[in-house]
Structures are given as C-alpha cells and as structure tokens.
C-alpha cells in the first residue's frame, strides 16, 4: 500500500509516489538503461502501470465517432482525404495523452494475454449510424493487437493491427510502432476507396523526473487509393510552434508533391488550416467513451473481466494485490502455453486470420515508397454479432 491519500477523482489511480515507489522507480530506470533488446519484456513496478490493457487501445480510434462517420458523407476524393486526415489527427489525443491527463503521468498499459478480447460500440446518435468494435490479442510474444471497427450504416470500416518494439536511447524510451490500418469507404456508385494509414514513432520523455509523457516523432502517412497523400510530421518542443505535441500535415493531390492543403498545430488541442487560418481540428471538448457490457455479463476472456482485480488494485493504490493478481494471470498463461506445447497444439484465433503480406499495404505503399515495402496483416472474419444490447442502442 502507498502512504499517499487517495486521488479525489473516482476510479483513478493515485499519482504521488511514496518513498518505496521512488526507490522502485530508480531501480527500474537503472534496469532500462542497462538493458539491450526489446524493453516490452521487462516487468514494470505496479505503481507505474495503467489499469487498462493494451487490448482496449483500438477504441481510441473512434472516441469521436461523428468524425469517423462523417468521412462517408464526403462529396469528392479530395474532401474525403481531408476528412480522413481530420479524423486521424483527432484520434491522437486519446491514444497518446489520455493517461497523462487522468493519472498525472504516462503509465505502462497492461500487457495483454494471447486470446484476450474487447468488444464495444458507439450508438447511433443523430443519424450517424452505430459504430462497432472488435479487438483480439493475436500474439503475446511479441504483443500484437488486431482490431476491426465498422459503421455498417455508413459503409465505412477500419481494419488493422499494432505492435510495439521498444528501446532506450538518450534518456528516453523509443517506441517503434509496428503495423498499419486500412480504412475502407463504400462509395455511392458501388465502388470503394481505401486509405493506408501508417503509425508514428513514439518517444517517452520525462523518465528521470518520474513523470513520463509521450511525444510523437518522425513522419506517418495516409495514402488514398485515389492518389491523395497526407504526410504528417511530428515534432516536440522547439519546432514549428515551439510547443510539445506539434504536427504539420501536408495533403497533396495525385501525381504531385506540392501540397494542396497544409495544416499545423497541436494534436492534443487545436490545429488550423495554414492558408485560411480556420480551425481544422479541436479536441478540447469531451470525448465519447466506448460503450461496453457490464463486467458481470462479459466472458472470462474479455479484457475488463480478465484484469478486473488487477485494475482495482491499481486504482485503489493497493499495488500488492495488483501485483499478486497480475502474476496469477501471467502464470496461468505460461502454463497454458506449456500444455499446448506438450500436446502439440497451437492457440486458435477467434476473429482474425493472419496473412504474410497485405496486398492493400503493398499496393498503396508503393505510391509513397513505404518502408518496409510489405507488411503482414490480420483479416477480420466478420464473425462477431454485436448482440441485442448493442443493436437496441442504435435506435437512440
């Protein structure tokens, strides 16, 4: 237990470290600094853990569901690419700063177990259509999360997977995000438009002060099958506006390297159209949390049920219980893998099929010389029924 008072925000973890936690943090930093290889295999002290599993992270793609569904209403290829870029930039705050805002600093998410599941939806409000989410942890070593998000009424879907390869450099943790996403829009004329979305690199700073935070780095791309390309540059403090969480995005038309539109600003607050000065993205308003079943209704493999006692321990500041419950889950996983090996069997995925090379990635990646030129993918089987509770919500 910590010797600090509970956080006033209900359900959030305590943020001020005790003396013993500071000592554990110092030990953890030393282990990071002397470690070679992928840091994801290191065990973090419980007090720097987030009460949320990585399996929940794909929900961040759609916490502004009205922006996701609006993509389908575009009247031209150009407008669609603008709306895809606007939606994408608006997802970054939830993905990369929400733990900072809630918990006082960046926390390491719980490392999901193979087969872990997460289901949710955003209801139909004002005719935007219901958006459904299916997530499965398709690999444990390395940790890979596959997801499928779809708004059937609007004819728009997002399929992708993500993994992280971490290393230590210059006092920061560098996270190379592996994977990509493909956004597909069914067009009124019967065709479809596809967008290949690559992922930015992360740099976790503030480690030596005990208050880690994420900064995005380098460049990511959104390539449309029509030829429109968004090039998004991420910079930290001292670039562009001289502030953290800065980005500059250029949208160029087919066959041209000259930007038709340029946007810049802070991806966790607001950005503007450079030419007109009008607001492009504004994520200062509250986001819309994904709707899920109660823990009691969930299957044992669903994320919030699986980790419920670990999460409670972290939120309550009872790190001894959190550590004990976390070890119990991890030991069960190790035993399951041993049993499979002894029986000569292999874990069977529930919702996704693995393919060695994604043809959409290869085709669209050629247009901007993607590196690497090919990537594997996890293809959704379309075998999850949202269920009556979620279907009923679409009547709102």
From TrEMBL:
Region (Disordered): 1-22, 321-349
Cited SUPFAM superfamilies: Oxysterol-binding protein-like (SSF144000)
InterPro entries: OSBP_sf, Oxysterol-bd, Oxysterol-bd_CS
GO MF annotations in UniProt: oxysterol binding
Gene Ontology cellular-component annotations: cytosol; membrane
Biased composition (Basic and acidic residues): 321-341
UniProt family annotation: Belongs to the OSBP family.
Matches recorded under PANTHER family: OXYSTEROL-BINDING PROTEIN HOMOLOG 4-RELATED, OXYSTEROL-BINDING PROTEIN-RELATED
The protein's name: Oxysterol-binding protein
Natural source organism: Wolfiporia cocos (strain MD-104)
Lineage: Eukaryota, Fungi, Dikarya, Basidiomycota, Agaricomycotina
